[in-house]
Design a protein that fits this description.
alpha+beta; 5-stranded mixed sheet; elongated; binds adenosine-5'-triphosphate; binds magnesium ion
């Protein structure tokens, strides 16, 4: 029969990689925790309306990237393409929005995109959202928190912070008119996507990767000139706070975010180490979203980081962990030996004398078990044969370094094992 393969763009995370995933997840979670953020665990499936209403009908995500299907009762459902909408939905539904409300979430997101390095159809994000605070000190907090995450991961020198303000919806509307008026004069020279966006979502054109379009934009009116006073002042305060905190930033006047719901602060952390998929984390303010989703008018701001890209970056910088091997392999020949070993191994697990104990299973001769012990990568083998059982003893064999073995009374095992592991620790 033919073998069944995983769906294109939906990757298995194999054992050799999963160590780094766990390190990444626990590091980010610990920093969020230390800043007073609480975790929300959200469903992967939401009603389609949640996303069309929040992300906006004319965005890439809603236009062409969502996994949408009808449930058996005819209701339209969607695999979540991002986490903010669900997070805000849950915060409203469960009355979590007291001020301040600091939340985070983690898990898979789904977008029908062209799979390539750093871009998948099922990918993973960790994101945080703060609801109820309108002032730029919280914008700064999120960025300072992220700077700490990069520092703990050893990524500080590989990522750059870009920030911008896209202003209030009023100032954006005025800018939009000016931008469209300008681009209309050179409509024919724009790339195809940008021509389409000219009518639907012209701000996204600023984000275009097309060099000719980018060159045309050099002569375009600047978003910064259209900012309202409040947005301008908030942006200045954010820059000042980042300076005080010692977080380096770069003003990218063309930075806009793909989704409709953003206003004022937008930011991205980018790297030049991953080719085209260089944005590892993106975020911004969304003061209208809570109301748009049926809650009381509440400001909000958040970010989401792309875990696949961060894993790629760790590898690129040679910061990936070596794959894990056993510390101790337990060899037993015969039922009586297996019985004798069982209790001892339990005690070793209780006392924490060894990190990773692999107990042989599946029978076989002493020789074949010792081969498996070698192949396991363990540094120590614990051996129970007839003699050991009869003598209430165990043989401890060093599989690396100077080698050698000794048979000792069970009472000395815990200590002897700790010493042996410390000696062979490389
Ligand atoms: P891009 O411009 O790369 O498509 P985006 O603007 O669509 O990104 P966001 O919706 O802001 O991305 O998501 C936040 C982060 O999630 C991105 O910066 C990126 O690191 C990651 N991300 C987004 N889409 C994917 C994907 N298809 N595969 C892997 N990571 C992704
Ligand atoms: Mg995208």
């Amino acid at each position: 029969m033919s073998a069944i393969r995983a769906i294109r763009g939906m990757s298995d995370i194999l054992p050799a990689e999963s160590v780094d995933w766990r390190t990444l997840e626990t590091t980010v979670a610990a920093v969020l925790d230390s800043f007073g953020y609480d975790q929300l665990r959200l469903p992967l499936v939401e009603s389609t309306e949640l996303f069309s209403r929040s992300i906006g009908e004319v965005t890439d995500i809603v236009e062409k990237e969502m996994y949408t299907f009808d449930d058996r009762n005819g209701e339209s459902l969607t695999l979540r393409p991002e986490g903010t909408a669900g997070c805000v939905r849950a915060a409203i539904q469960h009355n979590l929005i007291t001020t301040p409300c600091r939340l985070w979430y983690a898990g898979p997101m789904f977008r029908y995109e062209r799979p390539q390095k750093g871009r998948q159809r099922q990918f993973h994000q960790i994101g945080a959202e703060v609801l109820g605070i309108a002032t730029p000190d919280i914008d700064a907090e999120l960025i300072i928190l992220l700077a700490r995450v990069w520092r703990e991961l050893g990524l500080t020198s590989a990522v750059t912070l870009e920030i911008n303000s896209i202003g209030s919806s009023d100032s954006r509307l005025r800018y939009r008119e000016a931008l469209v008026a300008y681009l209309d004069t050179c409509r024919g020279e724009l790339d195809e996507d940008s021509q389409r966006r000219l009518a639907s979502n012209p701000l996204r054109i600023l984000d275009s990767k097309n060099p000719q379009t980018q060159a045309l934009l050099d002569g375009a009116p600047a978003l910064a000139d259209f900012l309202d006073d409040e947005s301008r002042a908030d942006f200045q305060r954010l820059c000042d706070l980042l300076d005080v905190a010692g977080v380096a930033w770069r003003h990218n006047p063309r930075l806009v975010r793909g989704l409709d719901y953003y206003n004022k602060t937008v930011f991205e952390w980018v790297t030049d180490r991953l080719g085209a998929q260089g944005t590892v984390c993106a975020g911004g303010r969304y003061d209208g979203l809570v109301e748009q989703l049926g809650g009381r008018s509440t400001p909000g701001i958040g970010f989401a980081m792309g875990m696949e890209r961060l894993i790629l970056l760790l590898r690129e910088l040679n910061l990936a962990a070596p794959s894990r091997t056993a510390d101790v392999y337990v060899v037993t020949v015969g039922d009586a030996a297996q019985d004798a070993a069982l209790g001892c191994v339990q005690s070793l697990r209780d006392s924490g004398a060894a990190g990773r104990i692999e107990q042989h299973a599946g029978g076989g001769s002493f020789r074949s078990q010792m081969k498996k012990a070698d192949r396991s990568g363990a540094r120590v083998a614990l051996i129970w044969g007839e003699d050991e059982v009869a003598g209430n003893a165990v043989t401890l064999k060093l599989l690396r370094g100077e080698g050698g073995q000794q048979t000792l009374p069970l009472a000395q095992l815990d200590n002897a094992l700790r010493q042996a592991l410390a000696r062979t620790n490389d």
